[in-house]
Amino acid sequence: METLVAVNALSRFGHALSDPIRSRILVELSTGPGYPAEMSELLGVSRQRMSNHLACLRGCGLVVMVPEGRRARYELADQRLSHALEDLLGVVLSPDPEHVMPIPV
C-alpha cells in the first residue's frame, strides 16, 4: 500500500475513533447491524446527532447504509473492521499519568 494512501486511511480511522459516540457506534456495529433510532436510544443521543455521526462514519468509509423499505440499516463496511476493533480493544495501554487526557462520555 502506498504510504500516502495508508496515512489517509489511518487518519480517517483515527478521526472516526476520536469521538466517543462514534467509537461507541463502531463497537455496537461490530456485534451486528443496527438501526439509527434504536442506536440513538441505546447511546442516549438525539436522532439528529446519531444521523450526523453515522454520516461521518460513512464518509470515513467505515460503515455502510443498507435501505430496508422505509428504514435504513447500518453495518460495518467490512467485517475485518470488527476484528481490528477487537484487536485495538485487546491492547493494554499504559499512558503517562501526567499526560492523560480526560475522555468525555
TrEMBL record:
Biological processes annotated in GO: response to cadmium ion; response to lead ion
Record key words, sorted: Plasmid
Keyword Cytoplasm: no
UniProt cross-references to SMART domains, sorted A to Z: HTH_ARSR
CDD domains (UniProt xref): HTH_ARSR
InterPro entries hit by this protein: ArsR-like_HTH (IPR011991), HTH_ArsR_DNA-bd_dom (IPR001845), HTH_Metal-responsive_Reg (IPR052543), WH-like_DNA-bd_sf (IPR036388), WH_DNA-bd_sf (IPR036390)
Pfam families per UniProt: HTH_5
UniProt GO molecular function: cadmium ion sensor activity; DNA binding; DNA-binding transcription factor activity; lead ion binding
Highest taxon of source: Bacteria
Alphabetical list of NCBIfam families matching this protein: HTH_metalloreg
PANTHER family attached to this UniProt entry: HTH-TYPE TRANSCRIPTIONAL REGULATOR CMTR, TRANSCRIPTIONAL REGULATOR-RELATED
UniProt-recorded name of the protein: Transcriptional regulator
